[in-house]
Amino acid sequence: MYLIGLTGGIASGKSTVARRLFAHGAVHLDADQLARRVVEPGTPALAAIVAEFGEAVLQPDGMLDRAKLGEIVFHDEAAREKLNAIVHPAVRTLAGKLIAKAEAENSDAVVVYDVPLLVEARVDHPFDLVVVTSAGRHEQVKRLVEERGLDPIQAEARVDSQASDDERRAIADVVIDTSGALAHTMSQADALWARIVAERAAKAQG
Prior knowledge:
- It holds the Pfam family CoaE.
- By secondary structure, the protein is an alpha/beta fold.
- It has two domains: 1-26 and 109-206, 3-Layer(aba) Sandwich (Rossmann fold), CATH 3.40.50.300; 34-107, no CATH class.
- The protein has nine helices and five strands; from the N terminus they run βαβααααββαααβα.
- The protein has helices spanning 14-24, 31-37, 44-53, 66-74, 77-105, 137-148, 152-160, 165-171, 182-205; strands at residues 2-8, 27-30, 110-114, 129-134, 174-177.
- The protein has a five-stranded parallel β-sheet, with helices on both faces.
- α1 (14-24) packs across α9 (182-205) and α6 (137-148) packs across α7 (152-160).
């Protein structure tokens, strides 16, 4: 198995790169989706969140009210750290199980684990390669405004609440520049896939 950690700031093109690698045959795991799964009704993580933040963070159907919880933690660093201390270990455990499952099903699998908070959450899976998508702050804000309908102040706050581009680049083995045309991003993802195929062929021969 070959495990890739894919990270990057909000609106930095992670999903585009992940989809391209998936199209080449990679197994794609999305940390955001896993974070939703670990707080479904009946999970220990949801029970811990309710114990910490109260019943008000639940919707009438028992699902987590993510918007309400977001309002509580977005401007409160201590509350956000408490939430992360509940959710991040649960996500890490689930990701570990799914990575092991992918390997059991295909020992040659290439697994792309898409982790927006790879730096912030100190995710420590044994990655063979860490790939960072980078668009630059101005481009990220522009995309959030134009594509997701945020106002500029909101967009800047979302970008600035995450790790900086420099912090991400410091852990990167590969940086994919997504600030230009979509075709340029795709060609870099294709080159990355070619590199992985070549590395694994060389290892098999060696």
